[in-house]
# Entry
Amino acid sequence: MRMKRYLGLVLLITIAMMAMPTANHSGKTVSAQGEKIKVYTSWPLSGGTQAVGESMLKAAELALAHYKEDHDGAGPAGFEVEIVGLDDASPTTGAWDGTIEAENAQRCVNDPECMVYFGTYNSGAAKVSMVITNEAGIAQISPANSYAGLTRACETCAEGEPDIYRPSGEVNYFRTNGTDDFQGPSDASWAYCLGFESVYILDDTQAYGKGIADEFERQAEAIGLEVAGRASVESTDIDFRALLTDVLASGADLVFGGFVLDSGGPQVIQQMNELGLFEEDVYFMGPDGMASPALFDQIGGVEIANDYVYISFPGPLPSTLESEKGIRFYQGYVDTYDEEPDPYAIYAYQSMQVILDAIERAGVADRAAILEAMRTTTDFEGLSATFSFDENGDATVSGFYGYAVGDDTFIDGTLITPTMHETCEVASD
Amino acid sequence: MSIDNQVFIQNVIIGLTVGGYLALIALGYTMVYGIIELINFAHGDLFAFGFFISLTIFAEINPEIPLHGSGLYFTLPAVALLTMLLTGSLNLAIDQIAYKPLRRAPRLAPLLTAVGVSFMLEAIYAIWKGPIQIPYPRYFPKEDYMENEHVISFFSKLGMDITEWRIVSFTTKDLFLFGVTIPLVVLLTLFIDRTRIGKAMRASAQDREAAMMMGINVNRIIATTFFVGGALAGVAGMVWGLYINSGRFTMGFEAGLMAFTSAVLGGIGNIRGAVLGAFIIGMIKAMSDSYIGSEWTRVVIFGILILMLVFRPSGILGSTQSIEKL
# Structure
């Protein structure tokens, strides 16, 4: 008799568990909830990119606070918006993890109040969650992903991209920052203009790192910047001496590294210095994945990077923003949190604004309606530029800036483009 | 000398330095395996502990960077001894708490416990120092002998102009690494070959029960083994920190796997085999990084591990107890 009772209970739980995801997939149960809307964020809040992730989360909260300030304390369309900050970094590796990212996306899908999935930081992680949010019909917006293949086909992208991330066939993923197929070539042209002649290209074998390194290589070959070598590194390795010996022997005067903070970039810079590559006038150039002051701590002090490191970023850095909104963001951030925002905090803030705007225009707590509203974002006045979303979900305006490291910070921000090599005066070294 | 030859020479130097610190770690693996037939997967994390604890001690003392005078001849050895003591004690404690109660359990139980201890230690390091790249300040003074007047004039008498050798560098740090690792390896070998405790260790390794019947306190011998193994891994972590100036909480896992492979390659349980294996693996790593591509290095190294286990499980120099018994 007792056995039977338990059996019934187990059966009940099983049925309930089976029923739950189906109910959410339909998307119909959500609109009746009313009052509250949740935005799930997913990016590393621990590990090598912790500093960046935490700053982005603070920026998102700030965007919400500023929005309420402008609307007499009311949220978009009267809804109470709650930001749920999830971490997609693994405690065992300190870097983003596909399994955790999938769980995060699933949590949003399973929460009827979750209307927007806000993430990821790493493009590789987006490959995982995009499929899940796409099937569920939830809007996803990234504050940082720059791998081109997530939204459109490109020459160096994998086959089948981006359709493999869109099982439903609909576009549900957006981003407000520029992409690597623009950044990589811009970096190569910039390197050419800086007077470099021969480059050794490294990457971390990840979607982002390898993607941007491929784009850099393609452009370098096209504009006559010699590629002295190409290698991939194991991101958990700490000893790159043999590889860097090879770099020194190759005669390259620049190392381009497709890295993020937790995939080997800081070690490469640190060991380039240690092995005397900087002394031999071999410089380092890295993409936006390394554009954070956290880089300086991890290499053991900014003085190591001074004068020998170049980093590009999709826009002006926070302290150099000139628009009224930009200044409000920067000042507000510094006043509220008593620290400098990370460069990517700009995009977290801007993406959060897009989310709030979409909720306002949708007017209802319905995943499909909010997705549709986000898709039709037009002439949106953000921090970095005024933009719309094209049919792929990309922002229509996206410029990259190149920075040198000097005087213990990022200096000399200049607009860089894939065509700048045609007109620039090549600096002589 | 051509660039290619210079690259080769430099890779030999790098291979030797990698081999040097791997040897110290591999010794711990092999000693513990020799005596209680446990592959102590947490051993690599003791290497990381040596790195972190010495970093902490240095930060407490806060010496001038780089070390010089008394700092070099007094503080440095003192920190090294303290690091060895603490890391050895940690390994001893791990054995007493986690492995000793399982001495008579099936072989799999302590093995899994060791994996658990490894994860636990890594998580603790991540909480302690943060799961990021940790810079290790340049405490050790660095000078490149290839730029030293005396060395240059010495080589020029031999008819070689080493100022032309742009790629090759051999610094005080390289010398320091060899100066610590090689004497320690030799001392340990002598310790096991010549001393009474060493003899007791060998006896315990051959037959634990028989050794016990002969009046050897096997428990004390096992404790000594864990302490010595831990101390060696600890000093390796410190030397590596001073040498490479960077590390992270997972560094022990990586180094541990390499060292374990070295121990198997040389013949697990065999002291000389572990040292030989470490230098071979170090050399393979350097050559593979440079000539094949660093993304292939793990494939090469673990490929060798698999081939070794399949075709010659007793290793190059022969295992005291073949790993087949695992």
Remarks:
- Confidence is low (pLDDT under 50) at residues 322-326 of chain B.
- Chain B touches chain A through 47 residues (CB under 8 Å).
- The first strand of chain B starts at residue 134 and ends at 135.
